[in-house]
Amino acid sequence: MKIIYGTTNKAKLEAMHGIIKSYGFDAELYTLKDIGFTDEIIEDGESFEENSLIKARAIEAFCKKEGIEDKIILTDDAGLCVDYLGGAPGIYTGRYAGDHAPQIDNINKLLTNMKGCTKLEDRSCKLVCVLTAILTDGEVYVARGECTGTIAFEHGKLGGLTFGPVFIPKGFDKPMGDMEEEEYIAVHNHRDLAMQELMAKFKALGY
């Protein structure tokens, strides 16, 4: 199996490779840089599903133009949805405080907007990841994973997912950003859950 994963981030690619391998698949993964894709993708959809498909279709068009025909295209769109904020930041998770805003700015904006929510049980939220796969025959498969939790009153260690420093997964008492690797894996985060669904579809198709 050969997969073009819609990212230029090597670390993200390695993490995805580990997930795929854990499901028993032998796959070669390629980044957008590996195939020479440098186009800007305008993510103007109104949902995670729409934005993930927009990315996949853009890469598909590039592959057709370049004669790349033997690889599965895999893209994702992910974000944080907070109930108190009506589902925000949602699809704007990566740019909640503006395009290319530092992580701390996004976190501070979120915490400021939630100042009126003083009970932890009312700070419910979920991390969402939607994966889109376009197979070599053009078939499209979509998988969605969700990880529920609450928003902390103050942030923990910065780094990782945009809102990882304030996202407390259900069943835990600290944010993802403060977890050791073993604890983090045990959370079965949103991308893992989406991949689990997608890998089941791949197996059913005989990959």
Notes on the protein architecture:
There is one protein chain. With about 210 residues, this protein is of the alpha/beta class. The protein has a single domain (about 1-205), classed as Maf protein (Alpha-Beta Complex), CATH 3.90.950.10. The chain is about 35% helix and about 20% strand. The protein contains 6 helices and 6 strands, in the order βαβααβαβββαα. The chain has helices at about 10-20, 30-35, 50-65, 105-115, 180-185, 190-205, and strands spanning about 1-5, 30, 70-80, 125-135, 140-150, 165-170. The chain has a 6-stranded mixed beta sheet with strand order 2-1-3-4-5-6. It is globular, with a radius of gyration of 18 Å. The protein starts with a strand and ends with a helix. About 35% of the residues are buried.
End-to-end separation: 7 Å
CATH architecture: Alpha-Beta Complex
Strand content: 15-25%
Largest sheet, order of strands side by side?
A: 2-1-3-4-5-6
- Overall 3D form: globular
In brief:
This protein has helices at residues 10-22, 32-35, 48-66, 103-113, 181-186, 190-204, and strands spanning 2-5, 28-30, 72-82, 124-134, 140-151, 167-169.
Summarize the SSE layout with pairings.
Blueprint: E1 2-5, H1 10-22, E2 28-30, H2 32-35, H3 48-66, E3 72-82, H4 103-113, E4 124-134, E5 140-151, E6 167-169, H5 181-186, H6 190-204
